[in-house]
Amino acid sequence: MDKRFITVGEGATAREIAVRSRSGKAPGLVWLGGYCSDMLGTKAEKLDQWAAVNGHASCRHDYSGHGESGGEFRDGTISRWIEESLAVFDQCTQGPQILVGSSMGAWIALRMAQELKARGNTGRLHAILLLAPAPDFTHELMLPELTGEHRRQLEEQGYMEEPSEYSDEPNIFTRALFDDGEKNRVMTGIIETGCPVHIIQGMADPDVPYTHAMKLFEFLPADDVTMTLVKDGDHRLSREQDIELILRSVENLL
């Protein structure tokens, strides 16, 4: 396992992005984590272990403001994290890859696919695996639920806070994140990924309703996408049986 830092951005926007990668055969696995999560979580570790045992390459990184990477969390936007993820993809992977995007990471994965297609690099994508996908979550899931107090916080201080089920610290959502999210929406027309897509979604997910995954399904080319619904699955999908399902799905995508 190789651990390194790459610099993304220039001048005042430069930040050091932590990357852990493993050499091996193609297709490799590229992990894209969720909002406020890091690359040392259960699913990321299990995927890397699978890659090691099976001789496949793997790569994961922390977005700026997350985990081992530099930068301030409150400066983070979808565009910023896409830029970092593409830089890691370009500099730290070779040949065909399977993008594995969890929650917000699924949004990053789909935007990466669009950017790679625009660059003519669709051959680099072997497949995409989306876990509890939350593309467009600022517009689709959060905006309709904002209270008057949330809107006041966003207007007056530039950010809002919400209690987190996964940390003692509240989740921070900035006005910049909402504004930038509008520019990166993908659920507005057919999403051309240029590769097969598999979705795994828990039906007991309290954070991303399974109906959101079903809505996303409608924007993906039907002949290239499959979806597995886990009746008692939560948002993390980190139970032993969930991990087994994820690894089986990776094997099927190979």
How is this structure best described in words?
The protein is of the alpha/beta class and 254 residues long. It has a single domain (2-253), classed as Alpha/Beta hydrolase fold, catalytic domain (Rossmann fold). The protein has 8 helices and 10 strands. The chain has helices at 42-54, 78-92, 104-118, 137-142, 148-157, 175-183, 210-218, 240-253, and strands at 2-8, 15-22, 25-32, 56-61, 97-102, 125-131, 159-162, 171-174, 197-202, 225-230. The strands form 2 sheets. The protein has an 8-stranded mixed sheet, with helices on both faces. Strands 7-8 form a two-stranded antiparallel ribbon. Helix 2 (78-92) crosses helix 3. The longest helix is centred in the middle third of the chain and has 15 residues, at 78-92. The two termini are 22 Å apart.
Concise summary:
By secondary structure, the chain is an alpha/beta fold. It has 8 helices and 10 strands.
What attributes characterize this protein structure?
single chain, 254 residues, alpha/beta, Rossmann fold, two-stranded antiparallel sheet, 8 helices, 10 strands, globular
Task: Give the oligomeric state of the chains in this entry, treating copies of one chain as homo and distinct chains as hetero.
Answer: single chain
Shape: globular
Q: What is the helix/strand order? A: EEEHEHEHEHHEEHEHEH
Structural class designation: alpha/beta
C-alpha termini separation: 22 Å
The name of the CATH topology is: Rossmann fold
The largest pleated sheet is described as: 8 strands, mixed
In which range does the helix fraction lie? 25-40%
Count of individual domains: 1
Radius of gyration, CA atoms, in whole angstroms: 17 Å
Q: CATH superfamily assignment?
A: Alpha/Beta hydrolase fold, catalytic domain
Taking strands numbered 1, 2, ... along the chain, how are they ordered across the largest sheet? 1-2-4-3-5-6-9-10
